Amino acid sequence: MDFSVIIQTLITSVASVIVALIGAGFFKRYNDSKKETYSKSKLMEQIKKDEIVHLALRDLRRKYNSDRIYIWQFHNGGNFYTSAPMQKTSVTYERCSDGLERKSEKFQNTIISNITSYIKDVIDMSMFYTDIREMDDIAIRGICQSFGTQSHSGVPIYDDKEHLIGILSLDWVFSDIPEEFLSGEEFNEHLKEDLIKEAKSLANYI
Hints:
By secondary structure, the protein is α+β, with helices and mostly antiparallel strands. About 45% of the residues lie in helices and about 25% in strands.
């Protein structure tokens, strides 16, 4: 074979490799840039949703004159030795009166089996206590009282497929429950219906 042809073939091969490497590097940088842009976009979208939720909770706390309002969200976290997923819940959003201890600092990755009675009562729409001392579950009652809670209510948050994704909870510690939400010494149906509507609205952002 002619030596010049060999040289030309070699140069062409080397050039092809260089172009391929440059192209690969370009596409990698392009893909990395797309991922970074997508990540920033998703983060900004989540921040906007978080702001909406926090503002909504602020307004709801004022509306119901509660001292603490917060959202539990359900999630997985790890697995048992049986490979079954650990079902957990965490307080993800919270607004409090000045000076109150935040529950979100204490309740992260809580195993659901520890609060099943609370969740059941929320689903049954029976988690409404103007006097927390009337709560049957001693453990849950003790937790509430340790945070100074005098009155409490909790309603389920469902997504558009009717999956339970969270709980909207309110505590009254030293503030009075507005009369419009009471019938004698009990919460009235107006409060329950009102809270369910608010929970449906919040479901769009959590």
